[in-house]
């Protein structure tokens, strides 16, 4: 018996939603073109697509954040007019955003109460707490109610977001990459529970994702978007992963990956000895981190975000002070200041390059010269800068690294994410690199850029650079790294050559197990 | 015992703490609410001065000091509303607008207040708790101004409301995460407008205290930066209304140090001791902040913590 047949026999609370010819045009850009998808009630429907494929435009139109240029929406077979998020709420449609919409300083209970449209003017906490506890008892997962959300883990926050939707009696929920902040075990647990709820007909879920594994394991059906159009879809099981991937990527040319060169035993280049650091609240962020990276080796640091990886990157790039411990490069003590980075050839590719490694309003040429502007030929006498050689150098890098920019004088913030990353990559990799520190280099980029950037990292390794790669994307680490280290709670909980470990033991270490 | 200079200074500081703290209390409560909603209103210094002028003028013209207090509150609310309205325009910085309104409020108060410097307006009368003690010094110190109690009640009410009412939760939500508030269909601008308006009302009442109780007359040097210090006070009481009371009392006691020492004949360093609250502001700011940590408890949307 299919879910829709069940709906005709006995009404279930889960809602079916359908979009018909949904089109959204922003000025000259067609973000969404004639997209019709049908989400059956009581199913888990996956929405696949690359960044910029129109997934978020589509769901924002469905939730009333955007008004579609054309097209309509049906909820349970009836035409529904969703002009704003309030209309969506009234129709029992809800969405969990990738960036949490919980208020950090409020407790879980306060967050739930304040989200209610009929929140009472004066709150009777005793009665509300009783109601909330009764509600929580019926739910598949539990979150502490009386601590500020800021002190919850990412997994607990994600669960609370979903609980909030259920608390508000939403019967059609859109989840935007719900597992990106979870360990593999947590992700499996949560998707399993949600799948159970959809199968029982309590809920319909539309899940935005780019993980094929989650689609094949948990989804009932899938729709695939590319460049604003619906390019494929169907029941899971009737469509293969290869077909999904082809529909998602299209005929974009993907650069051939560099092969991994086999090296003889090489000396240690980067050594971290007992690093301790604190986070912004003064709590320990790094505890006794020891790590050695050899020449011609990529050490990948895996872990769920917020377990000390960003503190480690900040320490290595001079953005955060060490409480204790030493960093050595080629056996010499290393302070992360510009002169020493230059002398010891330490370079870095940071996450969110526009925030961490570029000056948004300075031009592409100036940003590309940030490592070299005080050396000849750009500078003479140590203080006089000539714009001409700066532009010349930038033009060469732009051509070599295929950066798409209108000119060398365009502010770098006007470039697309992939091109900002390429511009930074060009700056950092153009010299002689001994140590390369990389953090989530491919976050939010399209397949072509991802392939390009991973190839560049691999080439640096093959050239003999010591590469420290921090990534939340386990697949990226499994693809690139020679050795993997897992960070959990500010410590390294697992250290292993890539061939001697597997997804399960890495996932176990991410959750804090040793 | 009454002749003990130490006792005299202690009593004078006790009385001073209550007396001097009252305007700090009102301004800091107003600022606390405004900052909880995610905005900083530095214009409260100007609101305080204008409130003092309007309270004195209305009290003089009507003969009722409480009418003066009401007028000060209302004029403060108008200034708050102006700040709230201008800040919701695109690309406007709340701190710059605050500084502009600080100068505007003071200037307007001096302009309208010229004719009220000479006349004497009816003042607020104290509530006498002297019957609690037989000590003559304590009898004087226990003449407590009614606005102090209003301030205490307001602090408790604000503390309670921020936890137990919809308005309180919405204000805290708006101040901590505007994106969340918008996603829930709350109008961030409206919440901030209301919070700034109520904050201005409270600061205006603080001004009424200055001209109608202590020092109890209107002149142009009345405030001497108390409105600005109250902003610092909110930061170090970590956006907690109850802590605002304690902080205001501490600042009040520090402000009373100079006159108290003078009353027992120590006039050396009088001006230095008079500067005690300012030195205290500086010392507390240095001691309670760190370059490595973000301020704990700070609303996430404040432009100073972003």
From TrEMBL, chain B:
Annotated TM spans: 6-30, 42-60, 66-86, 95-113, 140-162, 190-212, 243-264
Membrane association type: Multi-pass membrane protein
Compartment list: Cell membrane
An annotated GO cellular component: plasma membrane
Single Gene Ontology MF annotation: transmembrane transporter activity
Keywords: Cell membrane, Membrane, Transmembrane, Transmembrane helix
Protein name: ABC transporter permease
Annotated source species: Siculibacillus lacustris
